[in-house]
Amino acid sequence: MFGIDISTFILVVALAVDFAIRVVAVIVVPRNRRPTSGMAWLLAIFFIPYFGALLFLMIGYRTLPKKRLEMQEEINRFILESTEGIEQVRRDHPWPPWLDSVVELNRNLGSMPLVGGNQARLLGDYEGTLAEMVADIDTASKYVHVEFYILSLDTTTAPFFDALENAVRRGVTVRVLMDHIQSMRKPGYRKTLRRLTDSGVKWELLLPLQPFKGKWQRPDLRNHRKLVIVDGRVGYMGSQNIIDRSYNMRKNIRRGLQWKDLMTRLEGPIVAGLNAIFITDWYGETDDLLTRDIEPVDPEVVPHSLDCQIVPSGPGFEGENNLRLFLALLYYAQERIIITSPYFVPDESIMYAITTATQRGLHVELFVSEIGDQALVYHAQRSYYEELLRAGVIIYLYKAPYVLHAKHFTIDDEVAVIGSSNMDMRSFSLNFEVSLMVRGRSFVREMRAVEDGYRADSRLLTLDEWMKQPLRSTVLDNLARLTSAVQ
């Protein structure tokens, strides 16, 4: 009898806790959260209440520790004060009438101004881009700043590490930041750290998960930025990591996967903006504010220059800076929109902006990969194809075995955006990203040539072909779409 009473008591308590979790979830989860994300979390908690609630407590909030948020505010104030009046923008024809409001939006969100007097060149050859970085590092006389989502020593990247070591030997200060979790997950992580240490490089891990060292935050917040700055003269940014094109993963090598990326090499005042991003992230990990040590560069204004604006985004900012920029440009477009995103898992606002563009009569193209390296993201992405195709979006599938990893889009013939940010909910809310908005027809023409190259190496996806997908694929795609909203 006693045993039955205990069992009954445990059952009653379990049911009460289960009911309490569901009630509290309905109150807490939707607060200050997108409806799609809130619904996904509620479904997880209602179907698997104990595990779902525990998962929500671990990763349901994207807030950084208070100290890091205060650091971001401090660096934002510094950027606003130190960049006042440096714009040097030539308002020559053609100047889109809507551009001023987008520039103001970016300035209010990320503190960075639109600056003129810049040159930019696109780099789409994987090994060639590494070689150009090495060549510029070899010219460094003051400092080299390197920040990557993935930094790994292997046969392909060895010359890059050699260049860093040689720079240190010349008396150059070399600082390196790498995302802790993603770099650690790649083969040769400890060898990479040893090489940096032995070379005399000052290195730090970004967003480290080291609870025994007192370093902890939401575990899936990651720093996704890719930057190189040399003496404040030359900068690189874009989608490419410092690792072999196969990412050295057995499953990728077995499938023959090769990454296709796009970087841009920058010269001019905008390089100081890139350096400010590095300084912010270095400060967040070390408490060392490098602006006290590095003198500002006063570059010459070059002819036929471009107007550029850096847009940082991530959990350190109150707004989703990259999402707001993307939405503004999508709605301002007058003729055409061409998007390249390897992981295209948009929220509702992006889908409305894109489908509204086609309904306004605009030409809209989307480049994605024919195959995927991440199953959940790949299937979630596929769940949007039918709606996009029915709306009139032209979808190109970049042919296997290449993974089109470039992240950029063009608006009319006036403006282009390139950077580290995908058009997905993770990039909007959870990752630290950096985007570059460029106003200049010469740059857009160069981007058009890149898009032409993609088109030649892609196949067109039609609605008729898509509707022949088997039911199991549709079910899997839709289930993956639900999980993508859990953030």
For the structure shown, list the relevant keywords.
487 residues, alpha/beta, 16-stranded mixed beta sheet, two-stranded parallel sheet, 19 helices, 20% strand, globular
Summarize the helices and strands and which ones pair or pack.
Layout: H1 2-28, H2 35-47, H3 49-59, H4 66-82, H5 99-110, E1 114-123, H6 126-137, E2 143-148, H7 158-169, E3 173-179, H8 180-184, H9 189-199, E4 202-206, E5 222-223, E6 226-230, E7 234-238, H10 250-255, E8 258-260, E9 263-267, H11 270-286, E10 306-313, H12 321-332, E11 336-340, H13 348-359, E12 363-369, H14 375-382, H15 385-391, E13 394-398, E14 402-404, E15 408-411, E16 415-419, H16 425-429, E17 431-439, H17 441-456, E18 458-461, H18 463-466, H19 471-484
Parallel strand pairs: 2-3, 3-4, 5-17, 8-14, 11-12, 12-13
Antiparallel strand pairs: 1-9, 1-10, 2-6, 6-7, 7-9, 10-17, 11-15, 13-18, 15-16, 16-17
Helix pairs in contact: 2-3, 4-11, 5-12, 6-7, 12-13, 14-19
General description of the model:
This protein is an alpha/beta fold and 487 residues long. Helix content is 45%, strand content 20%. Helix 2 (35-47) crosses helix 3, helix 4 runs antiparallel to helix 11 and helix 14 (375-382) packs across helix 19 (471-484). The longest helix has 27 residues, at 2-28. It is globular.
